[in-house]
Structure formats: structure tokens, C-alpha cells
């Protein structure tokens, strides 16, 4: 990519902060500590050799968990921070919207705040004059522009601040976690604006935790983890990697909540329960989900297996089977296989939960934190412009599974 085609170039950028480890109120103490080799601070490395390029007209997503270094990177691109190593090149006028309402004065009117904020973004009075009507129209606040900002509701302030950022006629727009601003009607207007901007050839850099937004708007994305570039390129692949990575702490949180004391008081009738996912944790709707359940029944009773697949993000059932078709009688070791398909879903992160029950429905064993598989389902056959397919959601899917038993 030539320099003329580049909007932003991040070249081997590294950034660290010095965090004090002791309090020193005198020069003497500081000097003594320095001679002893005690620095009095530690270095927190937030970014480590970050490199990527954003082309003109790109809608570029930056993903990463909290603390990964995303906001620091945006502040370096926006020239708020200076990197310890590396450089950033921005071609054109940059409009950075990292925090809602920064630079707004509650004692000034809405109109005065537009001009104040525009000046802080580097626009002249004449340039703001030309943008003013578009900003007010988008914010839908025409009748309130001569009122002081402190008399605005929080929603009105958000709409005005956001409108100044996205309607400012910059070459590069940077947005940090601001897709959920305003009410539902305003969010729809913002959605339409982003779709128009994507087609306009203007460059946008978006930081978000909303993976559906990444897949909907972005044509490129980068995933930052522990200050390093973990993945870069196709937004579908990068977003799926981010979602997949986020399933790891779920096991740890569930493990901490396991009611060990309650277990000790229960009469054990089923033991040595295990659940093993035989299919891949990352799959497409065309692939079958297959897993194996094993357990030992220590009393002469009837047992069956109930299971569910739950959408982690929405916390709703996608699929369940408690039909008692897996009912078995007697003591001994039980091995059961289950196979099902979820052909009508897309872009879903699910957890598989399984229980063993007696014929009255009482739970005898269940999949604990270490045995609860997380399954990612993403289609690989969707055209990039097929938004309806990309946005497809799911309700409860009709049971279609089959049981296989092994003695």
C-alpha cells in the first residue's frame, strides 16, 4: 500500500507507563534509593511492537478485552500520548471521539459547545459554520441549542456530543465504545449513518466489544491481546477469535461458584460423571454436534440424561432435550453418545450443559465447570454484503438429536 493510499500507519509502536512502588517526599530519599538500585517505580508495558495499516476508505475495527491496550493505542493515534518506540502516521484531518462529552462545558449553550468542541478538534469557525446545521439536524436538538448544556438530559447531551464527532468533516474518524449511545431511534439513525459512511470512502477506526457491529461495518480488523497483535485481517475471523478467547474465563468463574459443601451433604447415587465433546468447539451450522456422557449408577434405579445448549450472550436456550429417550435401568457403568444439528443458526457462542436425572426428574449429577464445553457456531458461506444472513438470530430449535448406548 502506497503512502497516498494510507490513512493511518502504526509502525512498531510500544508504550509503557511508570507506576510508583513507594512514596518518596524528599530528594535525599530518592537519591539514596537510586544509589541502592531502587527505582521507586515499575514499568507497565501496555503496547508491545504494534504494527498495522489502515487504508483510505477502510472501516477498521480494533478489538481486545479490557486492559489489552486498545484505548492507549487510540490515544497514541490521536496524538494524546507519545509512544516510547515506533511512530504513527495519519494522512488527513483526524476527528477523535474517545470519550463522550469530553470538552463540553455545562455552563455554555448547546450552540456554544458545538463551536468549542469543533475548535478543540482543529476546525476553524468557518468550517464549523458549514457543519453546524448537519450536526443540529442529526442530534434533533434544534429547539434546544440556545439552552445551557446543564439543562439538557443525559440523553440529549450524548446525542449532541456524538453528532459533533460523526458530522465533523474529518478524513479519519476514531470512535471508542460509542455504538450504544442514545435511545433506540437514535441508534437506528447511527446505524444508517455508519452504513452510508462505509460506502462514502471516508476512513473510520472503531473500537468495540460488539462483534456483530464488527462483522456488519468493518472490512478489516485487528485483535490486541496483552499489548500484542494476536490476529489481523478478515473481520469475521478476527471477531470469531475474540469471541472464542472470551469463553476461557467462563470456566474459571463457574468453577469458583461450584457448591462443594452442598455436594458433600447429598446422598450419592450417581458418580464418576464425565462429559466429552467429540466434535469441534469451532464449527459451522453444517457440522453435527456430538458428545459422549459416562457415569456410574450405584443403586438399582432408572436414569436418563437431560441437556441444553444456551446462548451465552443472550442467556436463552437454543436447544434442549429432556425427552427421557435416554432412559436406562439398573446399576453399573453407562456410556451414552448424543448427536444433533443446529442448521439454522449463525454467529453464536453456546455452552453445553448436561445432567443425569432419575425417572422423577431429580438431578443426580451434572456437568461442572471443567466439563462444560463452549461451542462457537459461525457460517463460512455468507457473502460479505448479505447482511440479513449475517444478522440471523435464533430462537429455540426443534429437537432433532439421536441417542446411542454402549454397554
TrEMBL record:
<protein>
    <submittedName>
        <fullName>ABC transporter ATP-binding protein</fullName>
    </submittedName>
</protein>
<keyword id="KW-0813">Transport</keyword>
<dbReference type="InterPro" id="IPR017871">
    <property type="entry name" value="ABC_transporter-like_CS"/>
</dbReference>
<comment type="similarity">
    <text>Belongs to the ABC transporter superfamily.</text>
</comment>
<dbReference type="InterPro" id="IPR050683">
    <property type="entry name" value="Bact_Polysacc_Export_ATP-bd"/>
</dbReference>
<dbReference type="GO" id="GO:0005524">
    <property type="term" value="F:ATP binding"/>
</dbReference>
<dbReference type="Pfam" id="PF00005">
    <property type="entry name" value="ABC_tran"/>
</dbReference>
<keyword id="KW-0547">Nucleotide-binding</keyword>
<feature type="domain" description="ABC transporter">
    <location>
        <begin position="27"/>
        <end position="251"/>
    </location>
</feature>
<dbReference type="InterPro" id="IPR027417">
    <property type="entry name" value="P-loop_NTPase"/>
</dbReference>
<dbReference type="InterPro" id="IPR003593">
    <property type="entry name" value="AAA+_ATPase"/>
</dbReference>
<keyword id="KW-0067">ATP-binding</keyword>
<dbReference type="InterPro" id="IPR015860">
    <property type="entry name" value="ABC_transpr_TagH-like"/>
</dbReference>
<dbReference type="InterPro" id="IPR003439">
    <property type="entry name" value="ABC_transporter-like_ATP-bd"/>
</dbReference>
